[in-house]
Amino acid sequence: MKTNPKPKVLVLCDAIRPTPPDHDLAAYLAGDRKTEADVLAAFGELGHPTEHLVIFDDLEALRRKLQTYQPDIIFNLADQFRNNRAFDQNIVSFLEMHGQPFTGCGSTGLTLCKHKAISKKILGYHRIRVPEFTVIPRGRRGVRPRRLKFPILVKPLKEEASYGIAQASFVETDEQFRERVAFIHDTHDNDAIAEEYIAGRELYVSILGNRRLDVLPVRELVFREVPPDEPRIATYRAKWDEEYRKRWGLQNQFAEDLDPVLARNLTRTCKRIYRLLTIDGYARIDLRVTPANQIFFIEANPNPILAADEDFAQSAVRAGLAYPQLIERIVRLGLQAVRE
Questions:
Q1: H/E element holding 143?
Q2: What pLDDT digit, counting tens, does each position of 187-209 carry?
């Protein structure tokens, strides 16, 4: 009998509450789980032997699954544990200590990118432009350093997907600064990072690879109906509230009219960022580009959302990589990754 030459895959997902081992997969996927549904459908099309595991707070269930199923690779879609996104690197550390191949970024890259201040310090040291910023830990008053000039964006230090970012994050007075810092501390139980607002284009650059990197076509968040004198920021609602996006003419599209020199600088800069932050697998780099074509790093997102209609997959399709082939490529990169 011929054996299946395709690697055996375990798709690892997370849950917002305890999930029994015999849970209803259809009900789980119906709960706003488009990425998981798209990835599982892609594996069905690719013909990989595939199982899935949903975890909330029990790593023992993962350990048992590794023993009983013995996957060749884990396709890692788990970016939180006990509803805490700060634990995504801990899940990966668990896999690294077990010598288990997995897709996406390793624990060091996840740690560096999660802490927005550390990533900016590293890149600033290497002369990549970052906004002037400061961190206000919980328990300290929101006092603005004099070097930090208005307008300023105040946001959670270790959140993702624009969680905790609203129009009120854009502050222009010391009173607004103090109020927003206190809000981040109290409501989000998070340290606050305050950084100078960079006016310009909001660009998203997707990268695929470990050592050899492929930079995919650039995406942009455009603000069609936002008045010129209003801040153009990627708030939580700007990313995830469809009615809000329609009202303000917000649209994710492929970046148009990029100057050829700027395009080359974007590619070179984003490759440097990817390597300096020890990212592997795949990531999206968020940037601001000023009218003078100065590139400012905002944040790096290892293991970005992989739903077929999201920016990363759309960039891959534009580069000639159909969605199932993108998933296959991510698997191969995970198998080839050297975890140290």
A1: none
A2: 999 999 999 999 999 999 999 99
pLDDT averaged over the chain? Answer: 95
Q: What is the pLDDT of residues 60-77, one digit of tens each?
A: 999 999 999 999 999 999
Distances (CA, A) of 140 to 120, 171, 179, 186: 21, 18, 13, 12
**Which residue range forms the structural domain that includes residue 92?**
9-102
In the prediction, which pLDDT does 339 show? 85
In-domain check, residue 43: yes
**Are both 167 and 261 inside the same structural domain?**
no
CA of residue 305 relative to chain centroid, distance = 7
State the Cα torsion 313-316-317-321 to the nearest 10°: -120
Whether 4 shows a pLDDT value over 70: the answer reads no
pLDDT digits (tens, 9 = 90+) for 153-191: 999 998 877 888 999 999 999 999 999 999 999 999 999
Contact indicator for 18, 57 with CB cutoff of 8 Å: yes
C-alpha 81/C-alpha 19 separation (Å) is 13
How many structural domains compose the chain? 3
Which strands, in side-by-side order, build the sheet including 152-156? 133-136, 192-196, 152-156, 170-171
Q: Are strands 213-215 and 250-254 parallel, antiparallel or unpaired?
A: unpaired
Residue 206: beta bridge partners?
A: 284
CATH number at residue 326: 3.30.470.20
Burial zone of 70 (CB within 10 Å; 0-12 exposed, 13-18 middle, 19+ buried): exposed
pTM: 0.95
